[in-house]
């Protein structure tokens, strides 16, 4: 726990300073100031993730990468120290003592959760090894040929490698997911003022999600950070609408953050439907320069991730073998890539055979609903179906109002958010609907639709406040039980490490490769590791030269 909070003591200032430098770029180019500290921190995470990925293209992401980052942060602090101090002081001075005490408490609680808990199955399957490859080598061509899941290439692994502090801590820390969850939790403190707004319903969804993942946040899995970023984008977007923000810049910046979310997990890509609003604003004002700038920012976020994907897998996008335009010798075999894509869909639908992935909806949906969802998950999905019908009715209502030339802009802005969430939910539902892949859309669709209805029929919010207090009480009791159950775990100083498994080894090119004696997980310590004994084909004489497919 202490190691987690100390790690955050480095993560917080470096991401904030990088975010502040980004805010100065925004101010100079667009004439818009980012004043929200949390928003600056989230953009700082975006900047440091892009940095870590670019650095990985030239070498291992470790001590050297952190020395360069620290030097850049010292430079930023030296140039803008007065502005930074004034901004932080201005934002914190107006906070009540209760707010500050609550902030300290949630930092301690998330530090506790990040120090221990359930290590996701996939973490010891490939997350830990992915992070170690980035720590050791940065990038290795054809890495997906020894384990196809390395080719999933979530950018969170590069960020985790940057802040793992292996050389300092003596082992690889994994605290980034907990930090992102903490930031989202802080955002929730700013919600629910005198009356409920739509953004507060998004906060309720985020709160519920955070109460689901605190047991698992010790794992550096990509699902949790992607869902937290998706929640944050929707909350901030709605907050800007409720503040009647007319400037298109903050909305466009959140779309850039949406591109960042894609690099965390591809399923978040549908949220970029939100870009319709700033794009229309810029086009109406003929601000083509701004459009070019935002496209460049989005490309800057996307390029290092896309390069890494191409170098690891040989495809522009993996696992989408249809986008097979690269003629490189390290490409994952097309049949293996196609099978991987099919398996993701099949497993997500609760089908134990990839050959069944093509089953029609009426055949796979009942199996998925019955076998893949917990009791509460079933209720959520049924509620989502009702919400889709309600939103369809609302869309028709807007069309009628538009035909009658009524004022519908405010409603249309909010409906765009609901439409983006609904489209994200439908994409998830009909592709690979494993609940953890799309929990944000499942919850947001319910809470935002409920908010849309509630804000029309309820004026004082008394009933909803009582429901929120009840939910909070239930979750506090549940969390207290979790703390009691895990209090005896010896992780108050040093964070819980990755799993350790019995392994065997074989040599390939004079290099020992480890594989599990049973199952398919190997953890972090035994490196390099593969899920099973296999044929390995090198591209050269050294491991850093990469791997080719062993399929003849």
Q: Tell me the β content.
A: under 5%
> Percent helix among the residues?
55-70%
Silhouette: globular
> What is the number of strand segments?
4
> How does the helix and strand content classify structurally?
mainly alpha
As residue ranges, the low-confidence spans are none
H/E element string? HHHHHHHHHHHHHHHHHHHEEEE
State Rg. 24 Å
* Spatial strand order of the main sheet: 1-2
Detailed description of the structure:
The protein has helices at residues 2-30, 37-56, 63-93, 97-115, 121-136, 155-162, 166-169, 176-189, 198-213, 222-242, 249-264, 276-284, 288-313, 334-348, 361-371, 375-403, 409-430, 439-457, 462-486; strands at residues 503-508, 511-516, 537-538, 547-548. It is mainly α and 552 residues long. The strands form two sheets. A two-stranded antiparallel ribbon has the order 1-2.
């Amino acid at each position: 726990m202490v190691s987690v909070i100390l790690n955050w003591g480095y993560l917080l200032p470096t991401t904030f300073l990088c975010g502040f430098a980004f805010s100065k770029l925004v101010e100079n180019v667009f004439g818009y100031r980012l004043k929200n500290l949390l928003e600056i921190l989230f953009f700082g995470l975006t900047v440091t993730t892009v940095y870590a990925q670019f650095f990985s293209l030239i070498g291992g992401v470790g001590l050297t990468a952190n020395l360069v980052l620290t030097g850049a942060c010292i430079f930023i602090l030296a140039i803008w120290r007065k502005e930074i101090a004034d901004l932080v002081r201005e934002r914190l001075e107006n906070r009540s003592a209760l707010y500050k005490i609550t902030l300290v408490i949630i930092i301690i609680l998330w530090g506790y959760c990040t120090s221990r808990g359930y290590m996701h199955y996939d973490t010891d399957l490939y997350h830990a090894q992915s992070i170690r490859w980035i720590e050791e080598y940065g990038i290795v061509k054809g890495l997906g040929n020894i384990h196809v899941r390395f080719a999933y290439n979530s950018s969170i692994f590069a960020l985790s490698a940057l802040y793992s502090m292996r050389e300092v801590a003596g082992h690889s820390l994994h605290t980034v997911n907990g930090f992102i969850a903490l930031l989202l939790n802080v955002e929730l403190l700013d919600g629910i003022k005198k009356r409920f707004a739509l953004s507060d319903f998004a906060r309720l969804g985020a709160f519920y999600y955070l109460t689901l993942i605190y047991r698992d946040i010790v794992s550096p899995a990509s699902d949790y950070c992607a869902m937290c970023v998706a929640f944050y984008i929707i909350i901030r977007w709605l907050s800007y609408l409720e503040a009647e923000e007319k400037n298109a810049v903050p909305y466009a910046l959140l779309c850039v953050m949406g591109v960042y979310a894609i690099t965390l997990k591809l399923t978040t890509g549908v949220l970029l439907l939100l870009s319709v609003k700033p794009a229309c604003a810029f086009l109406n004002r003929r601000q083509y320069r701004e459009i070019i700038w935002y496209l460049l920012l989005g490309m800057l976020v996307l390029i290092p991730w896309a390069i890494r994907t191409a170098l690891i897998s040989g495809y522009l996008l993996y696992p989408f073998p249809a986008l097979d335009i690269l003629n490189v010798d390290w490409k994952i075999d097309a049949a293996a890539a196609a099978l991987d894509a099919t398996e993701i869909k099949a497993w997500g639908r609760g089908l134990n055979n990839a050959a069944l992935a093509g089953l029609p909806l009426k055949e796979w949906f009942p199996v998925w609903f019955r076998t893949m969802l917990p009791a509460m998950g079933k209720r959520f999905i049924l509620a989502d179906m009702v919400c889709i019908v309600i939103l369809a009715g609302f869309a028709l209502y807007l069309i009628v109002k538009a035909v009658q030339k009524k004022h519908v802009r405010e409603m249309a802005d909010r409906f765009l958010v609901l439409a983006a969430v609904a489209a994200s939910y439908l994409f998830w539902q009909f592709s690979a609907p494993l609940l953890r892949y799309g929990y944000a859309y499942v919850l947001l669709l319910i809470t935002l639709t409920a908010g849309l209805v509630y804000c029309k029929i309820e004026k004082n919010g008394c009933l909803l406040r009582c429901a929120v207090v009840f939910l909070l009480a239930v979750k506090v009791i549940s969390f207290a039980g979790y703390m009691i159950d895990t209090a005896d775990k010896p992780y108050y100083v040093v964070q819980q490490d990755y799993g350790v498994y019995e392994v065997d080894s074989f040599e390939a090119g004079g290099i020992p490769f480890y594989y599990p004696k049973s199952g398919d997980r190997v953890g972090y310590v035994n490196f390099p590791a593969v899920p099973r004994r296999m044929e390995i084909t090198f591209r050269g004489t050294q491991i850093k030269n990469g791997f080719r497919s062993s399929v003849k």
